């Protein structure tokens, strides 16, 4: 069942989201060649612990505070002391904070050093897809308005839009109804958007195929053809007359 949040609940979710936005602000400068993904994850754990929160992914059984996915890794990259960021990488940082029972969720993809024009365009388009999805997220519209906005923009570049994973409700749990696909496929979710809903919109776009597979660690999802992927995400709250992006700093 879709949870309609009260003003007090949205205030709590907003505090968690602002903390997450601050974490990104402090974390991203550390995403440099030679740093291990475990070091980046440790940074997240320290930050979240210091503010009195908990890594939200722990409740899902994920072995890290951050899903750190590099290049062909679409989502759920497991932090490792043996995996290092390299020049030219696209590094996706998908993080959630549980702050007093209020959940935030966002992802930023970071270009490292000198990145190819092809990958930079993928990052730009995925960022624009996120903006288009948020613009379509309005009270009274339906979920497919978001899906259509993301899909139509990405399709102009012949990119693969990942359909096996999607955005979702969030705020009181990590994953809540409704699902918000990035592809408006027939028979897919199409609930009406209502004031009081809090959702995570998250385009996952591949340079090549839209198909994905899961590695033997049981978590890391990669593009099926090994092409580079990009993932951007924000948590937003829907009001009668506007939609507020919560996971950005004012």
Automatic annotation (TrEMBL):
Keywords: Aminopeptidase, Hydrolase, Metal-binding, Protease. It catalyses: Release of N-terminal amino acids, preferentially methionine, from peptides and arylamides. One of its GO terms (molecular function) is metalloaminopeptidase activity. It is an enzyme of class 3 (hydrolase). The keyword Metal-binding applies. One of its GO terms (cellular component) is cytosol. Removes the N-terminal methionine from nascent proteins. The N-terminal methionine is often cleaved when the second residue in the primary sequence is small and uncharged (Met-Ala-, Cys, Gly, Pro, Ser, Thr, or Val). Requires deformylation of the N(alpha)-formylated initiator methionine before it can be hydrolyzed. This is Methionine aminopeptidase. It comes from Treponema phagedenis.
